[in-house]
Amino acid sequence: MIEIRGVSKVYDGSRPALDGLTLDVRAGEALAVLGPSGSGKSTLLNLVAGLDKPSAGSVTVDGVRVDELAEAALARYRRARIGMVFQFFNLLDDLTVLDNVLLPAQLARTARGEARSRAAELLERLGIAGHARAFPGRLSGGERQRVAVARALMNRPPLLLADEPTGALDTASAADVQELLTGLNADGQTMLLVTHDTALATACATRTIELVDGRIAGSTTPRGLDPGGGGAPAGTGLQAPEGSRPELGGVPSRDGHPGSQGFRHGSGTGGRAGR
Ligand SMILES: Nc1ncnc2c1ncn2[C@@H]1O[C@H](COP(=O)(O)OP(=O)(O)OP(=O)(O)O)[C@@H](O)[C@H]1O
Ligand SMILES: [Mg+2]
What we know:
Keywords: ATP-binding, Nucleotide-binding, Transport. By secondary structure, the chain is of the alpha/beta class. Helix content is 29%, strand content 20%. The strands form 2 sheets. It has a 6-stranded mixed beta sheet, sandwiched between helices. α3 packs across α4 (112-125) and α5 (141-153) packs parallel to α6. The structure holds adenosine-5'-triphosphate and magnesium ion.
């Protein structure tokens, strides 16, 4: 899914933020990137998101050479192939929860009815349907982050990126978001998450790497993927039985990833809509 080859990033001639990094992330993995402040974690995420260009090396995501894309193609790439979640949510405070979640579909010119049924399904699955007409300012941090995750997943991106998704949350909300992300990965969502939260990394990641001075200094596999690859890791307890996948309106994805997010959160996060 992600192939990073010999990537360096140098900002204004100083010590490189990334130093010859080579890294693969397979479909179905949840890779957590740990490491001290300034070690290059956000830089790595930004290169994968196409928000910045490497000084050397190549970044390929889902078959696309992200580092070679021009602006218009980059915008399309970000719309269709990745979803991003940030530490401070980055929601638009003068839009309702529902309109925040609908925004990526509007940018992708998804038909209105199709977008609305997708949004409704996501809000329901993430336990925030009761807040659809509220403004983000009225929600708790954990609820806001759920809205941000719903927005990130709106266009069914093959890859979810998160930079410190629990960094601004209290312990209970962080546990909530941790459970949500773990469940999404159990349902097959590939993700790359940068975090200082070792509880999150241990619970959610199939693999962790530690960056130090822009290089990989170590790695662990808290929840290894089965060798077949691509499938959901075992043992999360969040997968509903086969055949129970709720239908997301049968909306085909425009980029060849039909319904890749199963959202089978029967036991994980589904029962919270009324909170
Ligand atoms: N836009 C920029 N211009 C100049 N230097 C930058 C820029 N962005 C990052 N850097 C530098 O690159 C290095 C890596 O930064 P990065 O933000 O990737 O670290 P990080 O691991 O995400 O740290 P943190 O845990 O504090 O978020 C740092 O030395 C930082 O100062
Ligand atoms: Mg950072």
